[in-house]
Amino acid sequence: MNKVKTIVITGAGTGIGEACARRLAQDGHNLVLLGRRRQPLDRVAAQTGALVLVGDAASAEAWSGFVEQIRSRFGGLDALLACAGGHGLGTATQTSDEGWQAAMRSNLDSAFHSARACLPLLIERRGSIVLLGSIASLAAGPQVCGYTTAKHALLGLNRSLARDYGPLGVRVNCVCPGWVRTPMADEEMQPLMQHFGEDLDAAYARVTADVPLRRPASAEEIASVCRFLISDEASIITGASIVADGGSSIVDVPTLVFDRLGGA
Question: What's the CATH code, domain 6-180+217-253?
Fold first, then answer.
C-alpha cells in the first residue's frame, strides 16, 4: 500500500481538480486545495477534509504564504497537481494584449509559479509534479491561439523541470486530456447546442464523432491518470506526456473521408 502523502491541487474547486481531490481523499491522503474562489473549495473540502488556500496560483506573492502554511500544517509536501487553467479564445488578430496575458497567466504562469514554489518542499521528500496539459498541447484547434500556445508551452516546462530536478529525486509529468465533461467544456458546447438545436449530450457526441472511443472522458477518468502518476507505481516515469484523449490524437485526419464511405 502507498504511504499517506500530502498533495497540493490547484484549480481544485471544479472539474478535473475537484475530481482529483475526491479520488485522492478516498486513498486517505492529506490534501491542500488551492483556488481563487472560496465557495467551491469549501464545498470540496467539506467532503474531503482538505486544507483550503484561497488565492491565485499564478502569484509568486501568494505562494510565499501558501508554502509556509503547508509546512506548518503537514511538515512537508509529496506531490503537486497543477490543474488550474482557463480559456484563451480567438485567433491571433482577435486576441487583445489583455486576452493573451490572461491565457498565459491562467494556463502557463499558474503551473510555473506553483512548481517553483513547491519544489523546495518536494525535493525534501523526493516528490512529484503533474501538470495538466491538453491535446491542445499537441495540436491546434480553431480560434484558440492563446490556449494552444500556453498548453504547448506546458510541455516545455514539463521537460525542463523533469530534466533539472530528476537528479534530486523529483518526478514531473504532464497529462494531456481530450474532451472532458467539465463545467468549462460544457460552456464550449453552447455554440454547438444553439446552432444545431441539440442538448448537451448530443453536442458531446458531435465533437467526439471521429474519436476512436466515440465519447468524452469523465473528470474522474483523468483523475485516475493523475493518481497513478503521483503514486509509487509510477516511480520510473518522468518527463512524460500521457495522452488521455480516447484516441483522438492517433486519427489520421486526411483519411477521415474514407469513413464516410461506410468504413468503421
Answer: 3.40.50.720
